[in-house]
Amino acid sequence: MSEQSVAQGIAPGQSTQQPAATTASRFHRVFGGSVGRNLGLVIAFIALCVVGFVTAGDRFASVDNVMTILRLAAVIGVLSVGMTFVITAGGIDLSIGAVVGLSSVWATTLATQTMAQNTHWIVMVGVGVAVGTACGLVNGVLVAYGKVVAFIATLAMMAGARGLAEMISNRQTQIVKVQGFLDFFRADLLGVPVLVWMFLVVAVAGWVLLNRTTFGRRTVAVGGNPEAARLAGINVRRHVMYLYGLAGLTAGIGGVMMLARTTAGTSTHGQLYELDAIAAVVVGGTLLVGGRGTIVGTVFGVLIFSTLTNVFTQNNLSTSAQAVAKGVIIVVAVLLQQQFASRSRGAP
Questions:
Q1: Left if phi > 0, otherwise alpha if psi is -120 to 50, otherwise beta: which for 345?
Q2: What is the rounded CA–CA span in Å between residue 141 and residue 143?
Q3: Nearest CA to 81 among 229, 326, 257?
Q4: pLDDT in tens, 139-188
């Protein structure tokens, strides 16, 4: 045995190919984990952009069209960030679309707009966000302390919030008359709409919260094994309530963004947005059973669906075809999730 082998601690007859195996193992860990999943999303997004450019040409690649895609993604993106936390913890929230409608209606009532005109337009923002957060906390109390199944609790909130929005607005569209509100949210910052900046800020804040704070680690722990999280000292019930409150907060922000985009509050705002948000979260790589979440993946999921919609629109294809394409993407994403999950369970 050589002195080099002795120095490296290699026994007689021991294979010297371990470094290669270690390198392969590291490669598998890196590209078989979040990096690999996000890389797949990036490739899918780029491929979709290439298809859009080939089929629509300069119309697709223009700056105005890119901003259109980002505006389309902004509201769903904000909702999807909140949904990521709920699903990571093993829950679901079917009410966020209806809460968007309720927030937009409540923020545009005559009383709210009169108060905003007499003081500052920020009152409308505060009302919309407060309504959304309150709805989310009600969901959280029902799920965490009332022990109501999340599907049922949020389904009830979906029906109740939509009905309350119809009662408040008398099923009429309420026009935003506070000019300061419109001027702020219609403005561009460095050539990018304020709504897109809001999406960016919420996404960055969500990433930091999930990946760099104790709150995020507790969320993953609760989703992975609630009983183990409880034994580790986490107040699971309180944390779940906070998570649904966070989802309601993002729904309230989404309601304010809908006001800015449409200049009106109506009970029909946010219809089926909860399904779009869930689809974006699942496609992004967050496990439906909980225990793993990714904000970066969610953002790419939102962008993929928004770009897909734009490509179909640019080529004058039917909304039915868009729905079929979205369905196929969701099914493929879930199948890939199951495959990754089975591999991780089978790994030593």
A1: alpha
A2: 6
A3: 257
A4: 999 999 999 999 999 999 999 999 999 999 998 999 999 999 999 998 88
**Which stretches of the chain are DSSP H helices?**
3-8, 18-31, 34-56, 58-61, 63-88, 96-107, 110-118, 122-144, 150-169, 179-185, 194-211, 214-224, 226-231, 236-262, 273-284, 295-314, 319-346
d(CA 141, CA 40): 38
User: Is the distance from CB of 139 to CB of 243 less than 8 angstroms?
Assistant: no
The residue extents of the domains of the chain are 74-310
Find where tokens 């389904």 sit: 155
CA angle 223, 219, 299 (to 5 degrees): 95
- Rounded to an integer, what distance in angstroms lies between the CA atom of residue 91 and that of residue 93? 7
92: left (phi over 0), alpha (psi -120 to 50) or beta: beta
The alpha carbons of the chain give a radius of gyration, in whole angstroms, of 23
Let me know: does 127 contact 106? Beta carbons within 8 Å.
Answer: yes
pLDDT digits (tens, 9 = 90+) for 309-321: 888 888 877 777 7
CA distances for 75 relative to 7, 21, 266, 313, angstroms: 60, 46, 16, 19
24 CB burial (10 A radius; 0-12, 13-18, 19+)? exposed
How far is 341 from 348, CA to CA, in rounded Å? 13
For range 320-337, the mean pLDDT? 75
Q: Which residue has the tokens 């199948």?
A: 335
Reference 81, options 256, 199, 193; nearest CA is 199
Per-residue pLDDT at 188: 87
Q: With contact defined as beta carbons under 8 Å apart, do 155 and 98 qualify?
A: no
C-alpha 219/C-alpha 200 separation (Å) is 22
- CB of 303 within 8 A of CB of 41? no
Give the number of other CB atoms < 10 A from CB of residue 318: 9
Alpha helices in 225-318, H assignment, sequence order: 226-231, 236-262, 273-284, 295-314
Helix, strand, or coil (residue 265): strand
Is it the case that residue 85 has pLDDT exceeding 50? yes
